[in-house]
Amino acid sequence: MADWITGRVKARKTWSDNLFSLVVDAEVAPFKAGQFTKLALHTDDKKVARAYSYVNAPGQDPEFYLITIPEGQLTPWLADLKIGDELLVQRTAAGFLTLDEVPPGRDLWLMATGTGVGPFVSMLAEGRCWEQFENIVLVHGVRFADELGYRRQIAALTEGRACFQYLPFVSREDTEGAQTGRITHAIADGSLEQKTGLAFTPEHSRVMLCGNPQMVHDTLAELKAKGLHKHLRRKPGQILMENYW
């Protein structure tokens, strides 16, 4: 049975018309960067729960990056929460999109769409990744520039780290400082490797994918074409993934 606890909204931030973050005051159990938990509210006389990844580093106040789904059963109510309002939080985290699951390698590629960047912000904030890899590339794909949530936080967390590259992709408008188009196209035509100066190779590359299922599916296919494979504990590979949107 899920171990639910009551939390209170401590802070909130609006990124765009449909993107927002909640910082929650709740005594959650220790977790690993990259893991998720569940948030819940009682709506229409029933409890509705959904899984959301931690954005914060372990030990910090729980923070979640959310997108409002107008027809959704939970996010419209979460979007209406104000500071001091209560919500339910599952105390124990879950999930395997963590650095502990990544085989040793030289280059770590973190690829996300939308709110899927959250687990990777948690990893950057925690800091273990800097000890584990020589090069780290964060690739974040969105439709419009105002959906590049946590861009400033990412810059602050990685300031002075020459081993880190951040490549935002905006697919539906030209944006200064961002690539135009989709992540999958940049993998297929080789421009992502050219831009970063790093090649996708089974020997050196380790890739973590987090985002909408279509992006995960298509990116996996492009990476397989370059010789990389899904990582399984019983059959080690180079790619870990999680559907999240």
Give the gist of this structure.
The protein is of the alpha/beta class and 245 residues long. The chain is 20% helix and 33% strand.
Key features of this structure:
12 strands, alpha/beta, Elongation Factor Tu (Ef-tu), domain 3, six-stranded antiparallel sheet, Rossmann fold, six-stranded parallel sheet
The number of helical segments is 7
Poorly predicted parts: none
Please report the distance between the alpha carbons of the first and last residues: 25 Å
Instruction: Please name the CATH architecture of the largest domain.
Output: 3-Layer(aba) Sandwich
CATH topology category name of the largest domain: Rossmann fold
Mean pLDDT: 96
Q: Order of strands across the biggest sheet?
A: 4-3-6-1-2-5
Task: Calculate Rg over CA atoms.
Answer: 18 Å
